[in-house]
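Late entry, written up from scratch paper. The run itself happened at the end of the previous shift, but nothing got recorded in the book at the time, so transcribing now.
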Amino acid sequence: MNFDKELDAKGLNCPLPILRCKKSLAELNAGQVLKIVATDPGAVKDFQAFAKQTGNELLSSAEAGGVFTFFMQKK
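Output as recorded:
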């Protein structure tokens, strides 16, 4: 998937991945895509809730070897 910016949140626990995501999204224009890579298993539910609360779209989420990858599009 194409993305405009990447956020490495590996090794960070809740709420830091969400806080860093919020900051990174603020630097993007509407419609641009942020790729987030995290290792916190709680990030899956966190990013789903964050998308619902903020109106940003969680395009996809996947897990491979304990690493979670999310693609979020700024509203």
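The mean pLDDT is 97.
(Scratch paper discarded after transcription.)
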